[in-house]
Every structure is written in structure tokens, then in C-alpha cells.
Amino acid sequence: MTVTLEPTVANPPTAPRLLELEITRRCQLTCRSHCYAEAGPTQGHGTMTTGEWKRIISEAAALGTKRIQLIGGEPTLHPDFAELIEHALSSGLEVLVYSNLYHVRAEHWKLFTRPGVSLATSYYADTDDGHDRVTGRTGSHAATRANIAEAHRRGVRVRVGIVDVLEGQRVAEARADLQSLGITDIHTDRVRAVGNAAKGTALPSTSALCGRCANGIAAVLSDGTVTPCVLGRFLPAGNIQGNTLHGVFASSSWRQVTASIPASRHDPCGPDCGPNDDSCKGGGTCDPASGLTAATAH
Predict the structure, then answer these.
(1) 193 backbone dihedrals φ, ψ, rounded to 5°
(2) Contact 19, 219 (CB under 8 A)
(3) pTM
(4) Residue 18 gets which letter from DSSP?
(5) Class of domain 18-290
(6) Contact assessment for residue 104 and residue 121, using Cβ atoms and an 8 Å cutoff
(7) How far is residue 92 CA from its own chain's centroid?
């Protein structure tokens, strides 16, 4: 394989603590109003091979990354989803799976209960109609709610994001419903103008981001494009196919992308800190990795 490196910066790159891997754009849902990846049932798994994903995971571990997030689309639809989790765990990484929890296979429950694995999902309302209006899939509310409850019953760590998408969506009631299921790690966010949410409007802007992308976070999309986060997909810094993570993070392109993102304010509970506003507790940080980096996925 021929590896092409871009001009590098003087200082060695800092490994992201969280590397988001968008392993597919296929999804059972059709969230036409807000899905940043424009995922859906007819989308594919991209051009990255399983071998390339495993290489990236190994490189991330070697650089010092602590955790990867498998996301899509719906990551569990990737044919080698389980193999990628096993490889990440054997590489010493924690794994966060961002799933719509519409359908969970028996073998995947076994993976989710493994030490070092946790789940995240999106929830939109406490009613079938309210949730299904957002996802475009009848029955998705009942299925996702049942699997959230099952994950909690099995002792799986679950983080749930509520994205305020439609008028009258019953966000507060959704939070109360989740709490009734025993879920405590709940975050809310607004829709960000990326992907489907940007259609019919101006081009995506860095103003749609929370200000923490590329600050300890990076993403690799299903075509190998490296971006500051999955929401910052309109800010490509290179491609991992024919390159290495080290090569991308040491490049002038990565430095330029990082510099283009306005930093968040020091006040973590300020109005520009959407992903973690409601969970700020004095001295916290607006950390999408702990909030809703991927909440607008599906």
C-alpha cells in the first residue's frame, strides 16, 4: 500500500480521547428532519473495509486514544460489527455503541454486557406517535423503549439523548418516561444544521457545532474521511485510506480544521453549550463525548 502523508506540523499530534467511527450509513429509520448522516434503509456501509477499520482501531490505541464510538447509521447493521468490538476490546479500548435500539440481536446483548462496552441511544417522546413521527418508522418507539428497559435490566450502561426536533414533541415527558425506566444518564440537545437538518438552508457552518469538536475528539466516516467529529463532517481534514491516523493528526489540514472551529465559552452552562446544558453541575465542561456528540444521528 502506498501511504501519502500531508505536510506535518512541528509538534507531534495529540491523540483524541474519543474516536468516532461511522462504520455505516445504513439504518432502519428515516429521520428526515434531522439525521446528520442522511442515513436510511437504502444507504450502504461505505468504502472502508473491515481490515481498514481494524487498522484504524489499532492505530488509535497505539496513539493513546481511550475510547471509540461505533456509530452510523445503525452500527449493528454492519456485517462485522461484533468483530470490530472484539478487536477494540482486545486493543485495550473502551467501546461506546450508539444504536437506535430498534432491533437487538441476542448475540449483541452478550457484547453489550462485556466490561468496557456501553450503549447510547436517541429517544424523542414518551408516546408512540411522538417518537415515530421523528424516526419515520411505525413501531420504533415501542421497540426502542423496550430495549432501553432491557438494557437497564441487564446492567448495561445506557446513555440516552433527547433531541428537540418537532414542535410539541413532549421532551420533558420523554425525560420523565426514561427516568421511570431507571435511566439516569439523560441529555438533551437541539437540532444542529447538518445533513438532513441543513437541507433547504445555507451550507453547514461551524456555528452548528458546540465548540469542542477536534478538542480531544475526532471522527472517521464510512468513506475514510477524517473530520473533527461526526457532526463536523463538512470539515474534512484528510482521508485514512492511504494514510495513517498519525499522518492526518500531524497534518496542516488537521491544524487548519481545528483552528476553524470557534471554541466554546468557559461557562459550561452558557447558551452555546447545548449538548450538555441540562447536566452542567458547577465546574463541569461542555463535553460532547459525555453528552450528545451523536444524538442527531437517528
Answers:
(1) -75, 70
(2) yes
(3) 0.80
(4) E
(5) alpha beta
(6) no
(7) 20
